[in-house]
Each structure stands twice: as structure tokens, then as C-alpha cells.
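As promised in the previous annual report, we have extended the structural survey to additional targets. Below is the entry for Iron-sulfur cluster transfer protein NUBPL.
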Amino acid sequence: SSSSRDEALRDKRSRILSRGLPKQKPIEGVKQVVVLASGKGGVGKSTTAVNVALALAANDSTKEVGLLDADIYGPSVPKMMNLKGNPELTPKNLMRPLKNYGIACMSMGFLIEETAPVVWRGLMVMSAVEKLLRQVDWGQLDYLVIDMPPGTGDVQLSVSQNIPIAGAVIVSTPQDVALLDARKGAEMFRKVHVPVLGLVQNMSVFQCPKCKHETHIFGDDGVRELAKALGLDILG
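The corresponding C-alpha cell record, generated without further manual editing, is:
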């Protein structure tokens, strides 16, 4: 019948499309992976990732939490987590994460000089991301929070397709241009079948230190409207 032919065609098409995709393989010792992403740079994504990792650990002291900085060109986690130095190597030649505030951290910032720019092409970046994912001894983690670079490029796709991700959180400021890119980020995760847990609105309120008056410098409803349009929750 025509319906069974259509079904066979659909099956064949999906098999062909999935051929080029890497097999998802969990990171050893890691139970759940949550990624923090944004379409645009400079919206406070790394700050949110650090706070999410610290909050997960503070919420339940029995849980072990790690933080992976996947931003190769502009690593922020070493500064935000007040960490310096090179990771030690285990007998199995895996890197040991640096630890502060009870959070195990790994970043490209531990492997290069603080002021040295990373002037690399895509293939070298992908190789570095692969090492940060697979050649780190995380021990046993309940949660690994990944601070993604901004945008919807190679790194985001590679991370999403190589490891199982429990969910993604999209961070945006309320300006129209940032919201446009945040929408693209949410749609990208949907395309690669990563659940989007919700949106975080950042940098919308300035409170005067003298009179405590609040001013919404970039507007206060942008992310709310985007969440409504995409059918997503606002997480904070």
C-alpha cells in the first residue's frame, strides 16, 4: 500500500541522515549533563553557568558537581571560580580538574597563558573540545554543567551530538538583537533533540544604590515574550 511505501521511505531517509552522526557516548562517571548556552556573547552566560553549578551543590551537599568551560576562544571560568594553574595528570594520562568552592572545574584557560589568544582554526578547536570532554578524570559527578561558547556553531553541534545531554538552558538579555539569537539557540537544540529546560533573563534591572529605584535598562518583557512564543518556561 502507499502508506507502507511512505513509511519505508521515511525509515530509509532517517537511516541515511543518521549515518554521518557520531554515536552518543556518556562521559565516564558523569550522571547528568546540563548545558548553558546563548545565541549572543556578553549576556552573562558564564556567570549563570557558575551560579547554576554553585546552586546545585548548595541545594544538596550530597551531590558532586562539575563545571566544564567549553569556550575555547574566551574562557571565563578560571577567573570566575578564582582558579589558576595547570591540571595534574593521572597515571592514565587524564587531566585532573581544578577545584574551588566544592566544584570540579576544567577549562582551556588552565592550559594556556592568561593573556595568550587562541588563534586556531575549527579542526583544532574541535580537537580541544574532544580532549576537554573525554580526557578529564571527573571522578563521580551527579551533575556536569557545561558553559558553551556563544552561537550555534561547530562546538555546540559537536557537544550536542557526542554526549547525552539532560537539558539546555538559554540565557539572554531582553534586547531585540539578543532575543533573535536566543531563539536561534533554542531552535538549534530542538533540531538536535536536546530538551530546552527554559530561558534565563539577565541584565534587565539596574537598582539605584541611593534611592533603590529600579530601572529596566533593556526592557523587562523581552524574554517573557520569547518564552511564550517558543512554549518554554522562564527559569529566572
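The longest strand covers residues 30-37. The longest helix spans residues 2-19. These points will be discussed at the next consortium meeting with the crystallography subgroup.
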